[in-house]
Design goal:
With 160 residues, the chain is α/β, with parallel strands linked by helices. The chain has helices spanning 17-29, 55-61, 95-102, 125-130, 150-159, and strands spanning 7-11, 32-35, 81-87, 110-116, 137-143. The protein has a five-stranded parallel β-sheet with strand order 2-1-3-4-5. It starts with 6 loop residues before the first strand and ends with a helix.
Length: 160
């Protein structure tokens, strides 16, 4: 049961929706919170998914690239479960999430994904992230787009 396990809610948010969802999770369920920040913040122009030359689209097309993260201060060793949130880009997690996973040792950790999107689900995110965290169990969690009550969020966390 999640009550007896130390949980971290780590998230990457480019435009703010995932940050709001992560903060709701942390507040409702009492988890610790960690923001994955890029060295260079994303601008509105960078996030234009309709422009194949925008920064976000270039990163998704060239999936082997790893946008650098601003710090390596997450105390992953202190947690058993990591709730990992991100916006859905091209039906998967942004590559900066791979950068985060590759920066730490997640061996033996349970990583439960949550996402935000204008209309898609978690897609193939878990599959695409598993290679970046060898030894971890990465699983789909839920989309945080819908209006969930604090009680529903707590119940979801308890179910872990």
């Amino acid at each position: 049961m999640a009550d007896s396990k130390k949980i971290l809610c780590a998230y990457f948010s480019a435009a703010g929706a995932t940050a709001k969802a992560a903060k709701r999770i942390a507040d409702a369920a009492g988890t610790d919170l960690y923001e994955i920040k890029p060295v260079t913040p994303y601008t509105e122009k960078d996030l234009n998914w309709k422009n194949v030359f925008s920064r976000s689209m270039r990163e998704m097309i060239h999936r082997s690239g790893r946008p650098p993260i601003a710090d390596h201060d997450a105390k992953i060793q202190d947690y058993e479960i990591i709730l990992l949130g991100f916006p859905i880009w091209c039906a998967i997690a942004p590559t900066i999430v791979n950068t985060f996973l590759e920066a730490y040792d997640f061996s033996g950790k349970r990583i439960v994904l949550f996402g935000t999107s204008g209309g898609s689900g978690l897609g193939r995110s878990a599959k695409h992230l598993r290679g970046s965290a060898p030894g971890a169990k990465i699983e789909d969690g839920r989309m945080m787009n819908e209006s969930l009550s604090d009680e529903e969020i707590r119940s979801w966390i308890q179910s872990l």
